[in-house]
Amino acid sequence: MSQGSGEAGFIGRVLGGRYRLVAHLGAGRFTNVYLAYDLSQTRRVAVKLLSQDILPEGWARDGSLSSRFFAAAQEAAAVNHRLLVAVHDWGDSECGPFVVNDYLEGGSLLGVLDSGHLLSPSQALMIGLEVTRGLEHIHRQGLIHRDVRPSNIVFDSRGRTRLADLGTSGVLTSSAVGGVLMAKSVFAAIDAVRYASPEQAQGLTPDHKSDVYSLALVLTEALSGRVPFESDDPEYTQMAKMSRKLDFAGQFARLGRVLEQAGQPERDNRPSAHELALGLLSAAESLPRPTPLPLSRVGPEIPDTDETAAAAAPEKRSEVSAPSGIGRSALRRMLVALMALVLLGAAGVGAYALWTSQYGTDIRPVPDLSEANEADLRSIVTETGWEIEFHERRQDGTVAGQVIDQQPLPGIGLEEGEAIKVWVSLGPELVVIPKGLAGIAVEDAEILLAAEGLSVGEVAERHHEAVLEGVVVEVDELFPEVEPGESVDLVVSLGPEPRVVPDISVGASLAVAREELEEARLGILEWRESHNAVEVDHVIRVEPLPGTEVPADLVVTVVISDGPAEVLVPTLATLGLEEARAVLESADLCLGPVEGPLDAEILASNPPAQTIVESGACVALITRPAEDPEAEAEEG
To answer: Is the pLDDT of residue 132 over 90?
Structure first.
């Protein structure tokens, strides 16, 4: 995206009284990105500024776009992770709303691909794994990135990957504001769907698996040089994504199969970010350690304006001592000095005269390159016409990027077109991660790592059915070796996942209760009680209650009916009616029909006394009949 006339005039502006824009780094669909100098912190930062060309009419008066843009920036700033580009600040200015991020010297994956470089499977896997871990962290916060693309995958000076632009893309592509911006963006419509998931292409709400799909497309492009399903017709691209699967035709072995699964049209068939990370780790077993990415690590210089120079004085001093700060004229003087040191030594000027008379001016002595950096070596090529063959190796006592050997040695003469071999350090020898970390407490893992000069890095806590809480499940690193002094990421168990007591209803059969508890992976204790209303071998109640979240090792008590209880009919003879009623109720029996006078004493019961009956049964009573007065008179 070319800069509009407004953007071209922004260089030198100070935003928010703090951030001086010093160079235009690139552009996205809706934003321009600038290298800026933080005058209060004396550091380089990246400032993302909404393009003046696409800002809707009256945006400054309305304020809705700015407020949503800032809300997204604030949300992104709260999501702190080593694999995400940090958001430091945001604000409004006469140039438009802006967001301040880390400045990463290594550029972006887009820059690597635009320079004509395709990634090796190992490089693509390493980048994919780090982006996936960043996405996994975002998704655990309940957020979605929405715009995973090469320009948002950036690298620091050591080639480590970070994911940028969390949050703002969602604001700029949603609702009425998004429609205005999309309509005014100078990017072709195909750019909007190039890395979009099928559901995004349909206008549906994206979810965390939409980010996984976009990453699969990005890694496919990095490996092959072409975005899958891309055409000049956005509608064709959308239809192809909805109907076709990602197909590597057997290329890239296990890595290809992992990406094919991530590129499924149906989101339910795709892995989550965590599952994708596991797949990438599995594919890494068959791949070699990746070579360093071909990154450009020399960033734009900070202009020597009075205000910037004053604020940047500490950084300027550090740049003077660093080889990366050497300009062309300074480099020319350095080369002359190096050559003079080699040629003259104690012999004086005569040695140099002897050299030129014998070999002529087309042959130049090779300087000592031990203090040169990559930028210096490139400049030497320009100055001398020599070719430089770069080789890399690790060596203890060196730092990455340091020249550790050269052929020919300093002082040897070379003609234009001849080659110098230079060995550049990848850093000290790698340290092997100790074996046996899995299965021990995280505190013990710290001790083992410290013995190797390493430390515990990010600890991802996950539930595990077979590993106790606080015990290391696995080492979350792609390769078995790491840089000296680095941290090692671990996965630590939270123990088995909590369970939820299933919904076992009163009156359910014992067989159903057993099946549901087994499916919920909970133990069962069967307890039997008599019950008049629940039939035998059916559930009276469950303890704890259904729906309760419980520890994995909890045993759920299921109370099962043994049917109605059996009781003995008590002896009721000679009792009055009310006395008999009380005795029956205390025995869980009820008073049945009464044969005879109600105010007479009881002669017998039906069932008879000491008969076994079900609890709750009713007992009929027979009372003594009233005596006949005439009969009593005759007897008298």
So the answer is: yes
Co-location of 30 and 127 in the same domain: yes
Examine residue 293 and state whether it is found in any structural domain, yes or no.
no
Query: Strand pairing of 472-475 and 419-425?
Result: unpaired
pTM strictly above 0.70: no
- Token code pair at residue 393: 């190796």
Q: Are 129 and 268 in a shared domain?
A: yes
Banded pLDDT at 78 (limits 50, 70, 90):
confident
Based on the structure, what is the number of domains in the chain?
Answer: 5
Cα distance between residue 432 and residue 107, in whole Å: 30
Question: Cβ distance 53 to 186 under 8 Å?
Answer: yes
Give the distance from CA 135 to its chain's centroid: 3
Of 498, 553, 505, which is closest to residue 525 (Cα–Cα)?
553
153 closest CA partner among 97, 205, 221, 210: 221
194 part of a folded domain: yes
Domain residues for 517?
A: 499-561
- pLDDT tens per residue across span 356-374: 344 444 678 888 988 887 6
The token pair at 625 is: 């009949």
Q: Nearest-CA neighbor of 253 among 287, 215, 288?
A: 287
Q: Say if strands 153-155 and 98-102 run parallel, antiparallel, or are unpaired.
A: unpaired
Tokens 């995958």 correspond to what residue? Answer: 153
Task: Give the integer Cα–Cα distance in Å for 76 and 221.
Answer: 27
Q: Which domain CATH number covers 477?
A: 3.30.10.20
Could you give the CA distance from residue 604 to residue 609 in angstroms, rounded to a whole number? Answer: 8
Same domain, 404 and 547: no
Rounded to an integer, what distance in angstroms lies between the CA atom of residue 27 and that of residue 368? 41
Which three-class secondary structure state does DSSP give residue 577?
helix
